[in-house]
Amino acid sequence: MDNDASSYNSPDFVFAKGVPDNPGETMPARVGAPAPSFEALSLDGGTVRLSDLKGRYVVVMTGAVTSPMCSHEVPALNKLQDDFGGQGVSFFLLYTRESHPAENYPAHASMEQKIAHARDLHRLEGVRVPVLVDSLDGAIHRSYGAWPAALFVIDRNGRLVYRANMANTLELRQLLEDLIEGDRQAAQGEVLHGQYSERLVPHLADKDTHHRVYERAGPKAFEDHWVRSPHQRGLWP
Q1: What is the pLDDT of residue 234?
Q2: Closest CA relative to residue 86, chosen from 155, 180, 200
Q3: Considering Cα of 201, then 155, then 62, then 131, what sign does the dihedral take?
Q4: Phi, psi (degrees; rounded to nearest 5) at 124
Q5: Which of 4, 16, 219 has the alpha carbon at shortest distance from 99?
Q6: Chain mean pLDDT for the chain
Q7: Nearest to 220 by CA among 69, 63, 99, 74
Q8: Within the chain, where are the H helices?
Q9: How far apart are CA 165 and CA 152, in angstroms?
């Protein structure tokens, strides 16, 4: 394994000592700019290229079998694909490094191991959107900011129109409704202007999902969590 892959696939929870005060500053992919191009292996053995998806909206959520936030959002992401997949929207889950590497799902040492972990996520969480597997050194993930359960939307022309360092599928639903309605109005000759917003709010964790995913990952996942949040030690079994 080369140095880039070794440094990317940390054996410990990357944010064990806390997250940046402004996560947006750590995300190189900028709203309004062309989305970083990518080419990724699909679990069905094919290859997906962003350049082949021009003319469609593209939703990408990052995740891993040890990511509680990813697992929490999968059912809603499946439902969004059901509701919007027929309206010119393509959904993908990009498998990245392990968020909470532990005894059962350690940091990746090979692509074969990474693909096996991705298959487990697909099976255990009932993922229905296509799962893409990033390279061992996380080239795609790093180009978009390397957050564990981030969410991105790319418009029909390949421009990034939404990014969130932590997935929020409720917000995503409203965004997709607005984009599709904008297309409808534009087709009727309306002159539309873009609107821009930013926000920085607390992330509200789902304790039950965290416990379930940490238990799946192994005891070390709990230990890493307690390094970050020592006041919670003893609150979870």
Answers
A1: 56
A2: 180
A3: positive
A4: -70, -35
A5: 16
A6: 91
A7: 99
A8: 3-8, 68-84, 111-124, 139-143, 169-187, 207-217, 219-228
A9: 9
Q: What is the pLDDT of residues 18-69, one digit of tens each?
A: 556 667 777 888 999 999 999 999 999 999 999 999 999 999 999 999 999 9
Residue ranges per structural domain of the chain: 3-231
- Hey, is 232 helix, strand or coil? helix
Write the Ramachandran bin of 232: left for phi over 0, alpha for psi from -120 to 50, otherwise beta. Answer: alpha
Tokens matching residue 136: 């061992």
Amino acid (1-letter code) at residue 237: P
Q: What is the CATH number of domain 3-231?
A: 3.40.30.10
Query: What pLDDT shows up at residue 20?
Result: 61
d(CA 14, CA 62): 15
Residues in Cβ contact with 189 at an 8 Å cutoff, skipping those fewer than 6 apart: none
Write out the DSSP string of 167-220.
--HHHHHHHHHHHHHHHHHHHTT-----------------HHHHHHHHHHH-HH
Give me the pLDDT at residue 72, please. Answer: 96
Question: Is 40:90 a contact under the CB 8 Å cutoff?
Answer: no
State how far the Cα of 126 lies from the Cα of 220, in Å rounded to an integer.
Answer: 25
DSSP 8-state class, residue 12: S
Give mean pLDDT, residues 209-234.
83
The H helix count followed by the E strand count for the chain is: 7, 7
- Residues with Cβ within 8 Å of 103's Cβ and at least 6 positions away in sequence, in order, are 217, 218, 219, 220
Between 20 and 162, the more confident residue is 162
